[in-house]
Amino acid sequence: MGIALKTSPATRRSSSIGGAKGRVGFTLVEMLISVALVLLMMTLFAQVFQMAGNSISKQRGLAENDQRSRMLQTMIKSDLDNRSFISVMPFAPGETLTEAYKRDGYFYISDNNTANGIDDVLQFTVQLKSGADQYYGKALSFPATDSASPPNLDFSTNPFTMYPNQPDVDDSQVIPNNTGSSMLAEVSYFVRNGNLYRRQLLIRQPPAIPGTTTQPDTGTGNLSPASPPVNLFSTAMTNLPAYPQLLGTMVAGKPYATSFWNDFDYSAYYSGATTCAAFSGRTSLQNDGTSFGSLGNPQLRFGHDSSSGLPKEFLTYSGTPTGFVGRYTLEECSNSAFQYPQSASLNPMAFAFPGTAGSYDVGNDGVVSGFKGGLRRGEDLLISNVHAFDIQILDEAAGQFVNLTAPNTTDYSLTNQINTAYGPFGNTGTNAVFDTWHPKIDWNTDTIWDSPPFFPQKNIPGSASSTATTWTANKTYSIGDRVFPTTTLRIAPYFYQCVQTTTGANSGSSATTPEPTWPLKGGLKVGDNQLIWQAVDNRKPLKAVKIEIRFLDVSTQQMRQMTMIHSLVD
Fold first, then answer.
1. Residues 200-232 pLDDT 10s
2. Closest among 360, 305, 310, 355 to 332, alpha carbons compared
3. How far is CA 452 from CA 97, 455, 470, in A?
4. Among 94, 250, 394, 547, which one is least packed by beta carbons within 10 Å?
5. Which sequence spans correspond to the domains of the chain?
6. How far apart are alpha carbons 85 and 109 in whole angstroms?
């Protein structure tokens, strides 16, 4: 008979507990594997988030660069669309002006060092098409005075009732607001120290107010800034008290506490006859050779020497030009030491400045040391961190966009440069400048009108490739023959093509003396014994410009290049 063995409950519990004890928690290997997996997942997530963050930053940088590009393109395009010099053809010496409204003001491009893509300067005059649109700028208001002797400032009287012809009135506001406006302006673009600047200077369009004198007047046709303008605002201005903020601007011998361009965003030049600043006005855009103060004359433009007419784009010329400024910034022009255009002493626009006058240089911050710390710093700044600002023009003969005087040029090559002395290098080097010029400029007083830097022509007089020859008396000509007048030297705005003979088509006929009076407008005809000549425009207008701007978004290190091609053919 078998014997049954029994275990007690305590024994069973002990056995159960002992078995569970061996399986509690994780082993060291399991823990290491778990931690490794967690770290791997966290690393992967971190990389994903980093990539997402970088992508967002990159997209933000691209978006900001796109926004800057749109802003730049909109502004530059608007200025070029509103240029006053619509048909961009330089004036020939002594040229009789036709279609005057299409060739008002000027259009200027300087390549400076053609191998340097950041030292170009673009400057031209603009004219808005609609009277509803205006350019605005600062115009410090002239105070009223009482009847005391000497007079005191009278703040109880509206100064416009005493001095109605002042820039603060130009915006047609009846209450002084220190703001002027105009549909006309000088505009210049340049880069310095990686900053792209746009200077805008209004050209006065004062409202017609009975009893006031508008400045400047139309004078005698002498384009020299030494010619006396009429009083800047009205004859009553000479009776103002010694108000240093203003009087040095328009009254000879009066002090000026700040600077003209700190108080007035207006185009002006130094008038040697009245030893004070003279404002540019409506007639300053006219290039008919009779208007006083024409801006077609470089002597009267912003950034040019009022004596030599040369552009002031470098500080010093000691063999090699140094200290590129392009144009003076608003910070520099608003410094009280900048006393031009109200004074000619220590003239920063002078080609020889600074000479022995003191130590002026462009510092590491890109500011001319002698004019640092002006009150209006940054007001003319468009964009920073610019790495390229290159302006190229369409060379029609070369069939491509080129830099002026570069090896691949044809119409704008060194061999086709007519006036080699005009430009930021003067007679000291090669000037790569395009300028629309003025038909009557005689700086060297040799009684011969000076030529523009370039005058592209379809047929160049004296060139082996020209299809036109000089007109010769008693010579047989046929239909289709082309001639220049006998007085033509290097510039011929028109050549003349034989379009008819009295003895039948394509048959020979003889030209006889005297020489015809050649018409100066394309399409007009003139008789020459048995021949009929028709004027053909020989000029090549500048048809397009290409502007390349490259800039950096610092926060994302994204470089953006903006290239715009703008047609100049309307």
1. 999 988 877 665 554 443 333 333 444 433 334
2. 360
3. 15, 7, 23
4. 94
5. 469-537
6. 13
